[in-house]
Amino acid sequence: MIGTMKIRFSVQTIRRACLLALFFAAASLPLANLWIRTDTNGTVFFEAESIPSKKVGLVLGCGRNIYFHYRIEAAAKLFKAGKIQHILVSGDHHTATYNEASAMKNALIKQGVPAEQITCDYAGFSTLDSILRAKKVFGLNQLTIISQEFHVRRALFIAKRSNLEAIGFCAKAVETSIGAPTQRREAFARVKTVLDLYLLNRQPRFLGEPISIQPEPRSPALFSADKA
After folding, report:
1. Nearest partner of 44 among 140, 128, 144, 134, judged by Cα
2. Which residues pair with 87 in a beta bridge?
3. In sequence order, what DSSP letters do the residues of the chain get, joined into one string?
4. pLDDT tens, position by position, 65-97
5. Cα separation of 54 and 72, whole Å?
6. How distant is the alpha carbon of residue 184 from its chain centre?
């Protein structure tokens, strides 16, 4: 009898613990979203004309899809407007046939950005990896982050807690009919980001030797040629 009561009590305890965990998980979604959004207000820009100039722009990687093309367009626009002097493209290169950074570099060259003004980060396996590597590997203390708004805000949240002075430039948004799955994943990604930073203290999967980025100033004549 006593053994049976203990088993019943144990099952009830586990059930309550699971329900409590689910409650906190559900509550964490809007809270993480609100925290990241309010924390990054004032550092997100949508127009190239209004964004402050930084030496380096960081383009966050993804597969070759509509998000990819809009990010490339945004980075090229900033470069041609003289708002950034150099572009760091950071993406996943986990297999020989999947290379986000090289794909971004090639696309930027087609947009008129000189190859020598582009640096590839092949170990940007996640947004956190890309941001922390920008500081720890490439030695950057300030930069402009380029991606869609939802992604830019999460990246800025990470940068701020890494003592990296950053602003964000938002690439064109993707229509809801196409981007709904990504937006749903983003809600969970924001919770994970908070956990990674405040509980797990997660670090990049790979660091390696430091790589120096030395942006070359562009002449006003080149700016004029780009705008023509």
Report:
1. 144
2. 57, 118
3. -HHHHHHHHHHHHHHHHHHHHHHHHHHHHHHHHHHHHHHHTTSEE--TTTSPP-SEEEEEP--SSHHHHHHHHHHHHHHHTTS-SEEEEE-B--BTTB-HHHHHHHHHHHTT--GGGEEEETB--SHHHHHHHHHHTT--SEEEEEE-HHHHHHHHHHHHTTT-EEEEEEPPPPPHHHHHHHHHHHHHHHHHHHHIIIII----S---S-----PPPPPHHHHHHHH-
4. 999 999 999 999 999 999 999 999 999 987 878
5. 17
6. 16
> Per-residue pLDDT for 163 more than 70?
yes
User: Considering the entire predicted model, what is its pTM?
Assistant: 0.85
CB atoms within 10 A of CB 166: 25
Length of the chain measured in residues? 228
